[in-house]
Design a protein that fits this description.
The protein has 321 residues and is α/β, with parallel strands linked by helices. It has ten helices and 13 strands. It is 30% helix and 23% strand. Strand 12 and strand 13 form a beta hairpin.
Length: 321
């Protein structure tokens, strides 16, 4: 099997800001695996928060042997972006080789559309209210917070979008004290979920703390091995393929998390429709779907995913799977 990896850049529709910084483009790696005249592909987004760079992930992929299988891949690479792109490419390759869809290969029901959150980036309260007004027709808004003075931002978004469900992503930006101050106001403002309020290394403080709305582990949850450390802290886990290291582990994490009593959110890094396509399968029936990456781009792949009033639709075979 031949493996190749290329770097692709997609311009964002506008500057995207979280508590860690801003960006104007999405830099992704595209992996192709070829054998027997059939080529499958997948995409990953290396993430500096997890010690990944475009160069380091490329080196991981280029170091793989040619006799790849999905099961064997798990002995060769850890959970992360490199394994994700290769795993998804192998699923796509098998689907094309066998003339079947990936959900059939995985023994899953035929997927349908899922309502997805739309993300408003971190800004001044006035600017975030303006964003909320523009997107008030969307059923779920995710707002990026993570500063000590976020209450005016949250109230501004609620004014701008009075009917939308709101979920908050603090990106590890709050202290226990800031979260404790904000928590009593969340129900009043119609917040449905709070994502990663504290840094992953400091989330022991969540044990015993009041959780008026469900708290979701993002940076604290990567794969099934993460689950044991989440007890007493979180109600929901955010499954992202770039964290789990591919569709294979994402499906296993969803099953294990559900068995342990956690709700599931399916999220994404900022990438193209190719990165979202396998995640749509994981998102079926999820408590929250957050696969809006392509909606944040000024350009996308050919045969891009369809987003409409029903949500994000499963990929056509021409895109993936």
């Amino acid at each position: 099997m031949e493996i190749s990896v290329t770097r692709d850049v997609f311009r964002l529709a506008q500057v995207f800001t979280i508590s860690r910084g801003s960006r104007t483009e999405a830099q992704v790696l595209t992996v192709r695996v070829s054998e027997g005249g059939v080529t499958g592909w997948g995409e990953c987004v290396p993430y500096a928060r997890y010690g990944e760079t475009l160069e380091s992930v490329t080196a991981q992929i280029e170091g793989l042997p040619g006799n790849l299988t999905r099961d064997g891949l798990y002995d060769l690479l850890p959970a992360g972006a490199a394994r994700n792109a290769v795993d998804c490419a192998l699923w796509d390759w098998q689907a094309k080789r066998d003339g079947r869809r990936v959900w059939e290969l995985a023994g899953l029901p035929r997927p349908g559309p899922e309502i997805t959150a739309y993300t408003l980036s971190l800004d001044t309260p006035e600017a975030m209210q303006a964003q909320a007004v523009t997107h008030a027709h969307r059923p779920v808004l995710k707002i990026k917070l993570g500063t000590p003075d976020d209450m005016p931002r949250l109230e501004a978004v609620r004014r701008g979008a009075p009917q939308s469900k709101i979920i908050i992503d603090a990106n590890e930006g709050w202290s226990a004290e800031v979260y404790a101050d904000l928590a009593p106001h969340l129900l009043r403002l119609g917040v449905a979920l709070v994502e990663q309020p504290l840094p992953a290394g400091e989330d022991e403080a969540l044990i015993g703390m009041a959780r008026p709305v469900p708290v979701c582990a993002d940076e604290s949850c990567h794969d099934r091995a993460s689950l044991a450390a989440l007890k007493g802290k979180y109600d929901v886990v955010n499954i992202k393929l770039d964290k789990t290291g591919g569709l294979t582990e994402a499906l296993r994490l969803r099953e294990a998390a559900g068995a342990d009593g956690y709700g599931c959110m399916v999220g994404c890094m900022v990438g193209s429709s190719l990165a979202m396509a396998p995640a749509v399968l994981v998102a079926q029936g999820a408590m929250v779907t957050d696969l809006d990456g392509p909606l944040l781009l000024a350009e996308d792949r050919d045969n891009a995913l369809t987003f409409d009033a029903e949500g994000v639709h499963p990929p056509e075979a021409a895109l993936w799977g």
